[in-house]
Amino acid sequence: MPNQVHNGRHPGVPKIKFPCKDYPIKVVGHKTEDYSQWVINSVQRWAPDLDLDSIEVIDSRNHRFQSVRLMIYVQSMGQLQAIHTHLISSGRVKIVI
């Protein structure tokens, strides 16, 4: 049986079943010349099968921030935690959703 993360509001109802194809990640940080490529390279380190065709890069209204939206094939909660920790600890990322 695949690993599961349970939804805290509804115990027993799985929130994520691993492995999970097309898991969305949104990474928001201060816009720089290399920010989006840095995010893509960072996520690829942990998810080498990143779907490059699904990537969306969106600037904030005032162009100070940039959102990079990606779809990955996630195999475990540990993989998600590693991606999150790497991105946040860089100091370049404000939030990972």
Description:
The structure is a single chain. The chain is an alpha+beta fold and 97 residues long. It has one domain: ACT domain (Alpha-Beta Plaits, 2-Layer Sandwich). Helix content is 26%, strand content 37%. It has two helices and six strands, in the order βββαββαβ. The protein has a four-stranded antiparallel sheet with strand order 4-5-3-6, covered by helices on one side. Strand 4 (56-59) and strand 5 (65-74) form a beta hairpin. Helix 1 (35-46) runs antiparallel to helix 2. It is globular, with a radius of gyration of 14 Å.
Identify the CATH class: Alpha Beta
Q: How do the strands of the widest beta sheet line up side by side?
A: 4-5-3-6
| Regions with little confidence, pLDDT below 50 for 5+ residues | 1-8
C-alpha end-to-end distance: 26 Å
CATH topology: Alpha-Beta Plaits
CATH architecture: 2-Layer Sandwich
Beta fraction: 35-45%
Give the SSE string: EEEHEEHE
The major sheet is characterized as:
4 strands, antiparallel
Number of helices: 2
Number of domains: 1
* Helical residues, percent: 25-40%
What is the average of the pLDDT values?
Answer: 89
Radius of gyration: 14 Å
Helix vs. strand class: alpha+beta
User: Based on DSSP secondary structure assignment, what is the total number of beta strands?
Assistant: 6
CATH homologous superfamily?
ACT domain
Shape from CA axes?
Answer: globular
